Amino acid sequence: MPSREEENNRNHGQTVRARRRNNRPHWRPSLSDENLNEPQPSGPPQKQYNKFYTISANNGCHLSSIDVIAANREIENTLKGKPTKINETRSGTLLVEVTNCQQSRTITTIKSLAGVPVTVAAHERLNESRGTIWYPNRPNYPDEDLLAELSQYGVKAVYRTKRREHGVLVPTPVYVLTFDGCHLPGHVAVGWTRCQVRQYIPKTRRCFNCQVFGHGASSCRQQTGTCVNCAREQHDLPCTYPAKCSNCKLPHPASSNTCHFYKMEEEIIATLRDKR
To answer: Which portions of the chain have biased composition (kind: Polar residues) (predicted)?
Structure first.
């Protein structure tokens, strides 16, 4: 009868052979494995650097008319490399997208280009991003209190969305957060409630005057309005004519979300958002 020691050795050998057949290496605890269950350090993200800057001439001249070769060389020498992109705007200024944090700090030291005094400033809108969170807000915090709590994540504006029910605007649990930076964090926390941050997708913008997408009525150049239902010149409401879209000419109002132009505008917004 085999002894206990011989039986243990035989079982160990069978285990090793089975492990080799399954190609499973023997696991040994390591220092990293011992710390797997320890809580990982967490906290508010560090402040992001500005990526977009405008450069304008102090005398009001168009920077496209100066010595652009010399000016571009001066920009690259100051930044110690090429920026991601430089674009000329219609107003004659330059829109510069820097590559890293070092370029973000050094671009502000530029005082002149090709002998022309210039001013460098961070872009007002492009250096921010917007995301949405779902937070039920059972304590009924006002937006000001939520802004104070979320400012540690770089949030600089909080807006609670609303929906219309029976003619009355009712607040929803969806909040739009504006972040001071081009990249959104994965989550934010209100107290102990962890909220996932999703990319904010703005709604399509349709002019209520001419019914064309892409601008608002305040900046519309069309003198006479267009009826949203029948595509005729603006007339007394309610409209009694058959529905006809002023954009695609199909039998539906210009406000319909089934319109080809509406869907195309949604795709444009999504593409611009993803490329940003």
So the answer is: 32-50
Q: Determine how many CB atoms are found less than 10 A away from the CB of residue 128.
A: 18
CATH of domain 52-122: 3.30.70
Whole-angstrom Cα distance, residue 97 to residue 54?
Answer: 9
Segment holding 6, helix H or strand E: helix 4-21
In the sheet with 85-88, reading across from the earlier edge strand, the strands are: 85-88, 94-97, 52-57, 116-122, 112-113
CB 98 within 8 A of CB 79: yes
CATH fold of 129-199:
Alpha-Beta Plaits (3.30.70)
Q: Which two tokens stand for residue 14?
A: 């069978």
Locate the domains of the chain by residue range: 52-122, 129-199, 204-276
- The tens place of each residue's pLDDT in the chain, 276 residues long, gives 555 555 555 555 555 455 444 444 443 433 333 333 333 334 455 557 889 999 999 998 999 999 999 999 999 999 999 999 999 998 899 999 999 999 999 999 999 999 999 999 999 888 888 999 999 999 999 999 999 999 999 999 999 998 878 778 899 999 999 998 888 899 999 999 999 999 888 777 888 889 998 888 888 888 888 999 999 988 888 898 999 999 999 999 998 988 989 888 888 777 766 655
